Amino acid sequence: MTKTAGSLPWMVLNEKMRKFFVLISLIGILNLYAEDGSRLWLPDSYQEQPAVIQTKVKSETVSIAVKELESYWKGAPVKLLKIKDKTLACDGFRIEGDYDSQVTIRAASDIGLLYGAYHLLRLQETENLSQSFKIQEQPAYALRLLNHWDNLDGTIERGYAGYSLWKWKELPETISPRYEQYARANASIGINGTVLNNVNASPDILKTEYLQKVRVIADVFRPYGIKVYLSVNMASPKVLDDLADADPWNPAVIRWWKNKAQEIYRLIPDFGGFLVKANSEGQPGPQDYGRTHADGANLLADVLKPYGGIVMWRAFVYNPDQDDRAKQAYREFVHLDGQFRDNVILQVKNGPVDFQPREPFNPLFGNMSQTPLMPELQITQEYLGFSNHLVFLAPQWKEFFDSDTYCQGEGSTVAQVTNGSIFPHRLTAIAGVANTGEDINWCGHPFAQANWYAFGRLAWDPGLSSDRIADEWLKQTFTKEEAFVAPARSIMLQSWETAVSYMMPLGLHHQFAWGHHYGPEPWCDVPGARPDWLPKYYHQADEEGIGFDRSSSGSNAVAQYFSPLKEQFNSLESCPEKYLLWFHHVPWNYPMKSGRTLWDEMCYHYDAGVQQVREFQKQWDKLEKYVDPERFRLVQSKLRIQAKDAVWWKDACLLYFQTFSNQVIPHEIERPVHELDDLMKIKLDMKHHN
Ligand code: GCV
Q1: What kind and span of H or E run contains 430?
Q2: Which amino acid residue places its CA nearest to atom 13 of ligand 1?
């Protein structure tokens, strides 16, 4: 089914067709076999007798709110009121009322009313709404964005749910119905922007031909409050129009970008702005011409400024010539603090290396008071088992948000440093690298949808607990039955720590195979390869011990943190064990808090990870009667893969590190089932994923 730009599905259905679809969806609901996961967490119990919704506001956005409530709200009449109220930031809303008599949603903007409508429906699905209620909600970050690493040929870098949702070849004529479904899903969790293309950006995205396609997507997203942004390649003027160079100080280059901005805004008046990966992993950038990151960012900021656009400049930079990759973003950016235009925001990955299973927070957070910083989280599971492993990421992100930077004394958490409460920047934002693709269930693994959901909810309110988010998602996605929700939630809440245990416990990081980031290859050695792309660079295992010494006697990365954190990380005794091998090279016999030696503790962690996945399998199997067969079996089969992979990780890492520790694996632990030599021969064909 295709449709014309800007129209909504219910507008194109006549009454007969509507009834037909209601019937079809009823059959769908009754037929558990039809549950393919495409609905996500969105409401599905479409009612023939629409709810009573009153409003005087006339806009496409508010019509969506009305339609959603008419279709799915089962309670008393709802009034949507637009009011002038400074306590409601532009996207915020207030809901007051009683399930049985009257509910009023108030907001200062149309999109606030839509967010209020989705919130009300969420409450209906997840809480017991018999009491009267009064809720006020405001987002923590003004801009809540997804980043798609989607290429123009339809592939997705680090995407594990099929090809891209964006059908560039068909656009602008053909508009996939999924564009609107995508917008609806995002709006339901408060996401208000999306970067359509990969940060490893093709200059082609700025060709007129592509901008016309982007315009059509922007038109579909607009009523849902979603702005479109693009990743741009800094060499675009040179590549697309044969300019002599792409030097940000060259007047011809400046003119080129000015004209491009004008062209974009003529097509898309509310275009959000640019995301830039420059001088990183081979991407061109201002340093190619002896200019700084600030020079590059400011050039783009100046051309976007008249239209209200912003520049999100990434701080993901590293260079093999330097001593420690983890220190480099800080080194390149802190001295530029204060030099960026006010419509530039630095986009910083949560950790100092690269979305590893667990990292301490990036020390840039708290260290650039004059520059707004936006966290970049990775929803797609590049380093956490792709779409095969069940890993709920809210606990990882909570650990990050709640980390105390100490930049203004105790209690200066990453969330506060970035949401404008400690450094009062006008621009606040957060990005998540999307895990969506054209798979029918959007994300590959049914539980990977929970990470998309969790990102939206935490971008709105980083104070929400992982428990609450898991609970909400399960109830909306599967069933409200507590006998299902409680055990499934418990699996979700343990799953991240479990994956860390069987992959890289105690601060180990980047032990992935060359060519893909799925399985283990701690032994990997590729002649001539960049040293900082090899696991050995990170584990540093030798006969003495294991771990990267980032203490004051090593690379001194600890010095980039504020006191008392730097002292805490610096000392072997006070460093939290979860970060131990991140900051220290630790002797194999070092006594851990458990009373075990480091070697034994590592063995226990790997084994615990394996045992926990087996436990997840058992718990999941017990839930069969609550879940439709289709999703039940898919999760079941993926847990089998995860269990096998966990053993693979455990055996590979323990057998390999044992060649250095020369110690036995504690006898009470399950024995390895592989030979190291065999594991070293495994070469996965991951072409599709790279
Ligand atoms: C889009 C890591 C990933 C790359 C990714 C890069 C980035 O290196 O493996 O695929 O590129 O991060 O975030 O720019």
Answers
A1: strand 429-433
A2: 316
The candidate with the shortest Cα–Cα distance to 93, out of 461, 404, 642, 584, is 461
The CA 27 to ligand 1 mean position distance, Å, reads 43
Q: Are 379 and 194 in contact (CB under 8 A)?
A: no
* Residues forming a β-bridge with 135: 95
pTM over 0.90: yes
Alpha-carbon radius of gyration of the chain? 25
Dihedral sign from CA coordinates of 647, 649, 650, 653: positive
Q: What is the CATH number of the domain that holds 287?
A: 3.20.20.80
CB-CB contact of 317 with 296 (8 Å): no
Chunked mean pLDDT (size 10), the chain, 690 residues: 33 45 46 76 87 98 98 96 90 94 97 98 91 94 98 98 98 98 98 99 98 98 98 98 98 98 98 98 97 98 98 94 92 98 98 98 98 98 98 99 98 98 97 98 98 99 98 98 98 99 98 93 93 95 98 98 98 98 98 98 98 98 98 98 98 98 98 98 65
CA distances to 203, 236, 256, 684 from 239, in Å: 7, 5, 12, 35
Is ligand 1 within 6 A of the CB of residue 155?
no
Residues 111, 175, single domain; the answer is no
Cis before 172? omega within 30: yes
- Shared domain for 428 and 507, answered yes or no, is no
Nearest to 576 by CA among 394, 410, 358, 430: 358
Whether 148 lines ligand 1, by a CB cut-off of 6 Å, is no
Are 216 and 345 part of one and the same domain? yes
Instruction: Tell me if residue 147 falls in helix, strand or coil.
Output: strand
Alpha-carbon dihedral 67, 98, 469, 430, rounded to 10 degrees: 60
| Residue 384 identity | L
Residue 416 alpha carbon to ligand 1 centre in Å: 27
Nearest to 148 by CA among 367, 385, 438: 438
Q: Is residue 573 part of a domain?
A: no
Strand bridging mode 429-433 / 193-195: unpaired
Domain that holds residue 666: 500-548+585-689
354 lines ligand 1 (CB under 6 A): yes
**Domains identified in the chain, total number:** 4
133 and 246 part of one domain: no
Of 78, 111, 137, the domain-final residue:
137
Q: Based on the number of CB atoms within 10 Å of its own CB, is 278 exposed (0-12), middle (13-18) or buried (19 or more)?
A: buried
674 in any annotated domain: yes
